[in-house]
Structures are given as C-alpha cells and as structure tokens.
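tokens incoming
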C-alpha cells in the first residue's frame, strides 16, 4: 500500500506532540509537589482546575444551549471523574515519589484495556504488571506510605473512568467544548475543598502564579497537544506513547524533586510500561487483521 506523501512526517509530528504533552504533564506534577507546602494538595488541585477551566472556557466558548439531558449527564460525570482523578493523585504525590505514584496510577487504564479485550494473552500482561507492582513494593509496601499507595490506586480507577467518559463526551460535543465544560464542573466541585484547606493562601501572588503554571503545564498545554495529535494519530499509537508516562514521571521526580529510584523500582516501572504496551498491541493486532479481511471481501 502506498503511503500518501507527507503522512509519515505528520505522524512523526503527532508523536512528538504526545510526548511533549506527557513531559508537560509530569513536570507540571513535579512543580505541583513543590507548591504543596504553600497551598496544600487540595489547594493546588483547586488552582490547577480553576485556571485550566477559565482558559479552556474562554478559548473554546462552548455553547450551553441545545444539549440533551444525556449530554449534560455525560459531561458532569466526566467532570466528577476528572476532579476525583486529580484530587486523589495529588494526595498520592504528597506522600510517595512521583514516579511510583504514576506507575501505580497507570494500572487503572491497563486494567481497563485488559478487561475490554477479553483475550487470554492479556492475562500475561496483567501478570507482568502485577510483577512490577510486587517489585515496586519490594515484596510489600513497608517503605511507602500506605495511604499514598491507596490514593494512587484509587486515582488509577478514576483515570479509567476518565478515559471512558472522555470518549463519550467527545462523541456528544464538538471540538473541545465537552472538555471545557467538564473542566468547569471539576473546578466548581473542587474549589470549596481548596478554600477550606488553604483559604487566603490561594490568593497570594506567588502561590497563584505557580498554580497557574501548574494548570498550563498539566492541563491546558497537554490537552491541546493531545487533541491536535489525535486528529491524525491512531488511538493505539497514542495509548502506547501514554504508557511511557511512568518513566517520564520518574525522570521529572529525579530532576525537579531529587527523587532517585532504586534498581528494583526502575525495573518495576519498566515491567508496567512493557505490560501497558503489550496490552495495547494485543488489541491492535486483531483489529488490523479484521480490516484486512474486510478489504479482501468483494
């Protein structure tokens, strides 16, 4: 099959956009950790969601009328999942290293991928991921804050819900309108929690500026890059690139927060990444074969 001129170049650009988005998210997360002593985990989440919601609502200017009750239900649940995912994850990184938290969190999307595929080989990938988790805990999680581990795993469940309702919202709303509305819902839900924890600290110029930077790095920039990339990039390729997030998080934690990994922790992250990539590729194979069979049918 002949590849259209320039398509490979566009694909390479899209891949770089996804990787740039992943780097932006994880370095934004590292910056958020440095902000937590000033504003607390809930305060940082509130600033991130609020600034990101304002930017997206101003840029997208979503239409509020003409949507069904099902549309609004979908976008509200999407907003709730987004708020819970961010809140739980930031509670986690306040207690355990960033790379470890992201590795545990990515188990949520991995479990969703394995369950959705329903193929026997995916149990291999699940076992590989569990081996990674076992290594990460060194046979137990005694050296990690158990509450931080629980928050990371719960954030993974919410990440899986985020993926499901992100897709449903994308089908019901044009462009990034659904994302902007869901971000607004998430910000409204979380703002009272942030005010209760941090109060007037959120209005301090330095704190607000750093919170705005976290919002741009962790929400506005990566979501925009991913939106542009997904217009041309296959979802399977996107998922494989997203599987690299634990490694990027570990790098951000080391460079920004001086969180060095032990050899066993690095091996654990590698196992979880391999399991995620394997699960995605397992799903892609049957779809490609079915498309080829359909093309041969006259």
């Amino acid at each position: 099959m002949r590849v259209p001129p320039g398509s490979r170049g566009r694909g390479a650009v899209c891949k770089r956009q996804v990787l740039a988005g992943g780097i932006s998210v994880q370095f934004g997360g590292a910056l958020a950790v440095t902000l937590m002593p000033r504003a607390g985990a809930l305060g940082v989440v509130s600033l991130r969601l609020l600034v990101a919601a304002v930017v997206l609502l101003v840029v997208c200017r979503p239409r509020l009328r003409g949507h069904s009750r099902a549309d609004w239900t979908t976008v509200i649940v999407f907003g709730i999942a987004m708020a819970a995912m961010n809140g739980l994850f930031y509670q986690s990184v306040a207690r355990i290293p960033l790379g470890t938290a992201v590795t545990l969190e990515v188990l949520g999307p991995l479990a969703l991928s394995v369950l959705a595929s329903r193929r026997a080989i995916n149990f291999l990938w699940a076992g590989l991921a569990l081996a990674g988790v076992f290594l990460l805990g060194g046979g137990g999680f005694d050296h990690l804050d158990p509450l931080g581990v629980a928050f990371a795993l719960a954030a993974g469940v919410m990440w899986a819900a985020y993926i499901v309702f992100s897709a449903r919202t994308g089908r019901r709303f044009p462009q990034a309108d659904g994302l902007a509305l869901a971000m607004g819902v998430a910000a409204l839900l979380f703002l009272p929690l942030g005010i209760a924890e941090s109060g007037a600290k959120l209005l301090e110029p330095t704190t607000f500026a750093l919170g705005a930077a976290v919002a741009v790095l962790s929400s506005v920039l990566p979501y925009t890059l991913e939106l542009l990339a997904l217009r041309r990039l296959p979802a399977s390729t996107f998922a494989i690139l997203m599987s690299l997030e634990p490694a990027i998080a570990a790098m951000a934690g080391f460079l920004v927060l001086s969180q060095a990994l032990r050899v066993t922790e690095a091996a654990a992250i590698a196992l979880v990444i391999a399991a995620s990539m394997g699960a995605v590729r397992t799903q892609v194979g049957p779809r490609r074969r079915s498309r080829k069979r359909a093309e041969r049918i006259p």
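note: Residues 1-6, 286-298 have pLDDT under 50 and may be disordered.
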